[in-house]
Design brief:
By secondary structure, the protein is mainly alpha-helical. The protein folds into 2 domains: 338 residues, no CATH class; 113 residues, no CATH class. The chain contains 21 helices and 4 strands. Strands 1-2-4-3 form a 4-stranded mixed sheet. β3 and β4 form a beta hairpin. α7 runs antiparallel to α8 and α12 packs antiparallel against α15. The radius of gyration is 24 Å and the shape is globular. The N and C termini lie far apart (72 Å). It holds the Pfam family PMT_2. InterPro entries: RgtA/B/C-like (IPR038731). It comes from Candidatus Blackburnbacteria bacterium RIFCSPHIGHO2_01_FULL_43_15b.
Amino acid sequence: MKLKSLLLLFALLSLHLYFLTHLKFTAWPEMFSYPYLKNHGFLLYQDMVHPYPPVLTLTLAYLYKFFGYKLFVLEWFSWIVVLFSTVCVWLLARQVGKSERAGIVAATCYVFLQPFLEGNMLWFDIAIVPPVLLGLFFLLKNNLFASGLFFALAAFTKQTAGLFYIAVLAYLIWRDRSHLLRRPLTKRVISFLLGPLIFGIPLLFRLWQEGALIGFWKWVVLYPAMQWSKFPGYVQMSLSRHQVAVLAILSFSLIIIAVKNWKILKHPDFFLLSLLSFVGILAVYPRFSFFHFQIVLAFWAVFVGILLLKTKFSPTSAIVYALFIAASIRVIIFPVVRTDWGKEARFYNSEDKKLAAQIKEAVGDNQTVFLQGFSSQYYVLSNTLPPKPWADNFSWYWEISGVQEEILSKWSNNSPLYLVWRIPKESESLLGRYQPEKIVNYLSQNYTKEQELKNVVWVWRKKQ
């Protein structure tokens, strides 16, 4: 490993961090509320709807326990994950391309696109990028135990990442199919299978202890796979014109250099890259956004970094590269710089904190309160707790058969003293206007208006 390569990588990481610290950060409410509730005694799959495996929430819960529920804690953890993803892109491109330069070119492509394609945040799709890339890296180095461990870590962070694990397992069996059931293949497969066992056995034991096995099965596997796509707003795969333009730039740039290097793509390493890129595209479903597309973007950077170095320079290729750079600046980078540079964090701005302070003042500190029509970070900002059990305000949670009835039955002897109700506006999206009918009827009958905090936001008190 050359010193020059390390210095260039450090410079790229510094530039990446500069972009991240100056662009608007998206502080998704769940990145605060899930660990906050976990630290306040809520069991993830019994006292609350937690529709993901536990790794990311548990990690954040420990972080917040030590450093507090501060925006900078989430920001810096997110940026560390993203910067580590850049290092993983560099490592993987070096490994596949057998070149220090390939790693640097791939990392450069990633640094100049990732922050501008909804990458300045923490979400489950962003958290799985490092373990998936490391899983492939160790697979290419023939370390199947480490590979299985990292792919399993990704799957226990977001369940759709299990598709990467399944795809690689199928590839291993297919590649060595002539040795099926013989010792060399069996030993390799067992090494790869140890990863899920290392994570899965403690998780199953913990879920059994908490009586949450059924809840985990329903909310992490069954309902997402079989039920939620039936509800309006859950599946959102239609693309805006801007998204189509971005995908066209990424696709055509890769296709052009791939056609020029078709023979290289027959190598097994490129087949694996292509296979996992395809899986990453499938895993974007049911909602297309570029933050769901982050693992595909990382693979794209690896492909481009390697293939660019294999492409013979010519006036035509120079024109193509110049057009790609110009299109990327105009369509991808410039619009984000214009709208997001130096702006307050989304979901954690001054207005959010002001309203949370009003809620805290109206209902009191450490109170149990139900926030109807609010995103869940307001519990954290106002230092309040919802009643158990709790679900976020999405129709695909509340409209599952029997969910509202079960929650109301558990509230009967434990309903909160206060309710803060935000009446949705007609101009809001379908998701923003949603209110669970049976819950709303119960609240209307058992609570009375007491204080208006701001337009369409009222504090209600339980009837005596």
